[in-house]
Specification:
This protein has 138 residues and is mostly helical. The chain contains five helices and no strands. It is globular, with a radius of gyration of 20 Å. The protein binds protoporphyrin IX containing FE.
Length: 138
């Protein structure tokens, strides 16, 4: 019992240290950048006066989508060898669908079509949710 009293704070300090030093994967870095642009876009996507800055944010999302598409999600390493190729194909297909919707969003914002821009933005949110359900573990 006395031993436990000393070990518990040590375990807490060690686990905090491990968390603090855990490196982000390259994909996590891309996703964080995508998240920043996506959150900013949420506020202005329906504002035609913000067209220039919206196109800049969409360009950021495009760049991070292209980079992420070439990467493997961490969860791919947990797949049995026989299932991994299909898993990665599915990931690439969902990323491609996401990229297509980003292109549609860009076209809508360029054309000043606010309703279409909002619809694409909402679709991206659905694709994000599905992508995270299928390929991201918390
Ligand atoms: C609006 C679109 C999206 C946003 C804002 C977004 C945001 C994020 C964020 C904030 C993280 C956590 C990063 C961290 O831990 O530092 C993440 C991770 C992740 N996201 Fe997304 N995401 C989006 C779309 C997608 C899509 C479409 C897919 C897959 C088809 C996807 C797959 C993943 C995966 C697999 C991870 C874990 C990273 C890893 O395995 O290394 N995300 N995302």
């Amino acid at each position: 019992m006395k031993m436990l009293k000393h070990l518990t704070p040590l375990a807490i300090v060690l686990s905090l240290g491990v968390t603090a030093f855990a490196e982000d994967t390259p994909m996590e870095k891309e996703m964080s950048a995508m998240n920043k642009a996506y959150k900013a876009l949420k506020k202005s996507v329906e504002d035609p006066a913000a067209k220039a800055e919206n196109l800049k944010l969409i360009a950021d999302i495009k760049k991070t989508t292209e980079a992420s598409s070439k990467m493997e999600p961490k969860t791919a390493a947990d797949q049995p060898a026989a299932a991994k190729p299909a898993y990665l194909e599915k990931y690439k297909a969902q990323m491609a669908a996401f990229a297509k919707e980003v292109a549609d969003l860009e076209a809508a914002v360029t054309a000043g079509n606010t309703a279409a821009a909002k619809a694409s933005f909402d679709k991206l949110n659905e694709l994000k949710k599905k992508g995270h359900e299928d390929f991201k573990k918390d």
